[in-house]
Amino acid sequence: MRIPAHSVCTAIRDDIVSGAFERGSRLTEEVLARRYGVSRVPVREALRTLESEGFVTTRRHAGACVAEPTDLEAADLLELRLLLEPLAAARAAGRRSEAHLKVLRGLVRLGQDRARRGQGEDLRSLGGWFHETLAQASASPGLIALLTQLRHKVAWMYAVEAPARPAEAWAELGAITDAVARGDAERARSLTALHAERSFSAHRLRGPAPVRTSQHAVNTASART
C-alpha cells in the first residue's frame, strides 16, 4: 500500500514542531523513510511541501534541513495572525453553518467551565479547537490553509503562557461567537482583532529545542491524515 505524502508530511511537520528535529538539522530521505516506515517517494514529496511552507530549507551540499527562522520572521507570524484571524471571523459571520455555531458554543461553554474550575491544562487545546473551528466557518479554503500553517508555525516558534484571567479570555471568545451567530461581520472582526492583540504578550520565543527520540510510523491503520 502506498502511503500518502500528506500523511508523511503531517508526521514530519509534527516532529519539527515538537522539537524532535533540531532547527538546522539535516533531513535525509533514507533516514526519514526508515523512521516512518515508508518508501522514499512520499518522503521526497513531503519535504517539497514542507519547504514551501517554510519548515524545511534546502542547502547546498547538505540537502534538506530544518529551517532556522529569524526573530523577525517569528514576529511576522503574529502580525499575520492579527490580519488573518479577524478576516476569518468576519467571513464566518456571513458563511457559518449551524454545525459550526454548535461547536463554537460548546467549546465556549467548556472553556468557561474549565476556567471557573481552574483546570487550565485543558484551556490551550480548547482554545486551539475554537480558532480552528472559527477558521473552518469562514468557508474559505485558502484562508483556512494559511491559518492552519500559521498555527503550526506559532506553536513551533513560541511558547504561550496561560492567560492571567482565563475567564475574561473565554468571555471574549463567547462574544466573538455571539457576533458570528448574529451575522455581524464588523463586530466579529473587531472583537477577534482585540483578542489577538491581547494574546501577543503571552507569546515567548522558544530557544532551540532538545532533540527527542520518539518515532512515529505512518504505514499503519492509525496513520495521521
TrEMBL record:
What SUPFAM superfamilies has UniProt attached to this entry?
GntR ligand-binding domain-like (SSF48008), Winged helix' DNA-binding domain (SSF46785)
Please indicate which superkingdom the organism of origin belongs to: Bacteria
Q: Which Pfam families match?
A: FCD, GntR
What UniProt keywords apply to this chain's record, in alphabetical order? DNA-binding, Transcription, Transcription regulation
Ranges for domain HTH gntR-type come to 2-69
Kindly give the SMART domains that the UniProt entry links to this protein.
FCD, HTH_GNTR
| Keyword Transcription part of the UniProt annotation | yes
Quote the PROSITE patterns the UniProt record gives: HTH_GNTR
Under the heading InterPro entries, the entry gives: GntR_C (IPR011711), TF_FadR/GntR_C (IPR008920), Tscrpt_reg_HTH_GntR (IPR000524), WH-like_DNA-bd_sf (IPR036388), WH_DNA-bd_sf (IPR036390)
Q: What is this protein called?
A: GntR family transcriptional regulator
